[in-house]
Write a structure and sequence with these properties.
By secondary structure, the protein is mainly beta. About 10% of the residues have low confidence. The N and C termini lie far apart (55 Å).
Amino acid sequence: MARPNRKYMKNLKAYLTIAAIAASTLSLMAQRQRVSPHETTGAVIDGTRVTIVYGRPYTKDPKTGEMRKIWGGLVPFGKVWRTGADEATLLIAQKPIVFGDTTVPAGAYTLWTLPAEDGTAKLIINKQVGQWGVGPGSYDEKQDLARVDLKKEALDKTADQFAIAVAKNPAGGGLVKLMWEDTQYSAAFTVQK
């Protein structure tokens, strides 16, 4: 078998170095566009991992440092919200999960929230993934798999940064919890057997 010549190896090494630098630069540029930190949260519920990847905006405006009104302000009533910051929030389920009467097949989805002025809210499970959270082309209602009623509760302690949790439900199955300002919204789910 012929050995590659030195010039070929030198060029290959240069191309790989350039590719690595370009990849890391693009990654850094993407991170700089983000204002909010990102987090992955999840839990194993009845033998199935449920994972959520999302941006965690703060109550304080990142430009001015001023406190913002969240529900009915930054997150307007009657409009679909990306349920976090930056990219649309991602839900990943290893097995089918069931919210109320709706079965969500195993796979990846985006989560959106539709809060109303009367305090009610819907969790929207959308089949489209990979979109930025706001602007044209970000949310397509035609891709909705389900809209689930959220339960509203007051938080004991104010949450200055948006948080999502996946937790075991004492009644069985799991809960997806959205917490910010003085409010927690939650939706119960079970794992399809």
